[in-house]
Amino acid sequence: MSDISKEQVKHVAHLARLAITDEEVEKMTKQLGDIINYAELLNELDTDNVEPTTHVLDLKNVMRKDEPKKWIEKEDALKNAPDQQDGQFRVPSILE
Amino acid sequence: MALFDYTLKELQEKLHNKEITVTDLVDASFARIHEVDEEVQAFLTLNEEAARAKAKKLDEQVDTSVNLLFGIPAGIKDNMVTKGLRTTCASKLLDNFEDPLYNATVVDRLDKENTVTIGKLNMDEFAMGSSNENSGYTPTRNPWNTDYVPGGSSGGSAAAVAANEVFFSLGSDTGGSIRQPAAFCGVVGLKPTYGLVSRFGLVAFASSLDQIGPITRTVADNAHLLQAIAGYDQMDSTSANIDVPNYSEAMKENVKGLKIAVPKEYLQEGVNSEVKEAVLQALKVYEDLGATWEEVSLPHSKYAVAAYYLLSSSEASANLARFDGVRYGVRSENATNMLDMFKLSRSEGFGDEVKRRIMLGTFALSSGYYDAYYKKAQKVRTLIKNDFEKVFEDYDVIIGPTTPTPAFKVGEKIDDPLTMYANDILTIPVNLAGVPGMSIPCGFSSEGLPIGLQIIAKHFDESTIYRTAYAFEQATDHHKKRPTLGGAK
């Protein structure tokens, strides 16, 4: 049995850039704990000599020539943005 | 016969003979949507004005058309970007994403065939779910009985085809998201081999598993659709550079001598007796057609769900990091600094299941847990993949149920993530192995809900799936039944 603590849940939420309420921490601690306990099932298997599969096909990195080409105009890139100013994405202050 | 009873091939003949127009087809789609979609909730966004204009334009050039998809009304799952047409992934976070800048490759390829996009289809938010109840909007309902779920995550895509709202749709499948809703809604759904269909413009969920595929009413229609969307795309670095065979030709070969493997794990406890009976009946049909079947074992099947949730959630936690309220999507109005803007925008925009999976994935990838969870799951994935390879040394196809049960009731499983996840136990191994799998209708439960037969083949052997599925469809008439939704056939 491996459990996840409330502190861990809060830490993971911060890493995932999620704000969670105390109520959500309670619920998430229980639910994540259940899922992680279920995943312990995998430890029944001896995988010491098994290679991990990251990709099912024998794919190689695809390279192309590094040539500039036109794709998206700046105005287009900005048109779905929640906020913009002077042709740039606008965000709240980064420095305190 | 109503327009929706015809195959794509028959419709094309009628267009050529000027018995019908593209406008008739598009009118029929919208008329049906206006009639039943308040009940079904398959669509999130309609493309009515543009679709009608395109139909008019296509009607002026019918004589020169040569392909089978010309003028056919289509529905697109809302996780594929459509230029200038709202794309939300059924997430409140993308509620305002009204004007995507480009088309997904599959959308461009359909455009080239002159299909008509009718609208964007409902789904579980960011394709995470098995019932469409995780839609950030209204959940889609099963057209056969609206008290039941249509399955997920491509629930809208399957329901729209089953309810005769469109002639075909595109879905995406990460752990069963095309096949499971196809089974629940009584339609034909294919998850192609990983790498066969470009994912460029598909909003990524789990990149090592995601694949786009067609949902149709018949096997022949499905083969035509795959022909149009399959093949190498330089915009997708995981796209396989292979020669695409002629599926419609391959489909016609009979199944005499076909060697079928039936995994005993796929008919074990947990599989509903009516589902099991329907699959055994289907195997009888194959025997009558000259095929043979034997029981085999995929011994690591029971580990697939656990491995899948660790891998897919880990990949999702990385992929969904891009939703930060800066370049597109909804930004929280309650933040005063940058970090809070990220956190609040994401927390207010994402639904519970998406947050749960991001959290699970972030945990599995975090320092100190990576080897125990993520890497372990990748190793188990190898074992599952090897299971399939071994069976395919001796057999042409694997056949079993698509799902352990027919559709379940709305609300029945939503509060228990693990029970919901178990629903995908027969579809997930296929994604982990990267092989192609299809669901076709093979019967009905005593409650009148469709049952799906799953046909699995080796990498890039969609031809054998189509051949196997087509032979069954020709010999049976399950695919001819339609739901009686809206009082009209």
From TrEMBL, chain A:
Its EC number is 6.3.5.-. It comes from Paraliobacillus ryukyuensis. Heterotrimer of A, B and C subunits. The gene is gatC. This is Aspartyl/glutamyl-tRNA(Asn/Gln) amidotransferase subunit C. It catalyses: L-aspartyl-tRNA(Asn) + L-glutamine + ATP + H2O = L-asparaginyl-tRNA(Asn) + L-glutamate + ADP + phosphate + 2 H(+); L-glutamyl-tRNA(Gln) + L-glutamine + ATP + H2O = L-glutaminyl-tRNA(Gln) + L-glutamate + ADP + phosphate + H(+). Belongs to the GatC family. Residues 75-96 are annotated as: Disordered. It comes from the Bacteria. GO terms for biological process: glutaminyl-tRNAGln biosynthesis via transamidation; regulation of translational fidelity; translation. The keyword Nucleotide-binding applies. GO terms for molecular function: asparaginyl-tRNA synthase (glutamine-hydrolyzing) activity; ATP binding; glutaminyl-tRNA synthase (glutamine-hydrolyzing) activity; transferase activity. Allows the formation of correctly charged Asn-tRNA(Asn) or Gln-tRNA(Gln) through the transamidation of misacylated Asp-tRNA(Asn) or Glu-tRNA(Gln) in organisms which lack either or both of asparaginyl-tRNA or glutaminyl-tRNA synthetases. The reaction takes place in the presence of glutamine and ATP through an activated phospho-Asp-tRNA(Asn) or phospho-Glu-tRNA(Gln). Keywords: ATP-binding, Ligase, Nucleotide-binding, Protein biosynthesis, Transferase. The keyword Ligase applies.
TrEMBL record, chain B:
Its EC number is 6.3.5.7. Transmembrane segments: none annotated. GO terms for molecular function: ATP binding; glutaminyl-tRNA synthase (glutamine-hydrolyzing) activity; transferase activity. It catalyses: L-glutamyl-tRNA(Gln) + L-glutamine + ATP + H2O = L-glutaminyl-tRNA(Gln) + L-glutamate + ADP + phosphate + H(+). The keyword ATP-binding applies. PROSITE patterns: AMIDASES. The active site is at K77 (charge relay system), S153 (charge relay system), S177 (acyl-ester intermediate). It comes from the Bacteria. Residues 24-465 form the Amidase domain. Pfam families: Amidase. One of its GO terms (cellular component) is glutamyl-tRNA(Gln) amidotransferase complex. Keywords: ATP-binding, Ligase, Nucleotide-binding, Protein biosynthesis, Transferase. GO terms for biological process: translation. HAMAP family: GatA. Belongs to the amidase family. GatA subfamily. Allows the formation of correctly charged Gln-tRNA(Gln) through the transamidation of misacylated Glu-tRNA(Gln) in organisms which lack glutaminyl-tRNA synthetase. The reaction takes place in the presence of glutamine and ATP through an activated gamma-phospho-Glu-tRNA(Gln). Heterotrimer of A, B and C subunits. PANTHER family: GLUTAMYL-TRNA(GLN) AMIDOTRANSFERASE SUBUNIT A, TRANSAMIDASE. This is Glutamyl-tRNA(Gln) amidotransferase subunit A. It comes from Paraliobacillus ryukyuensis.
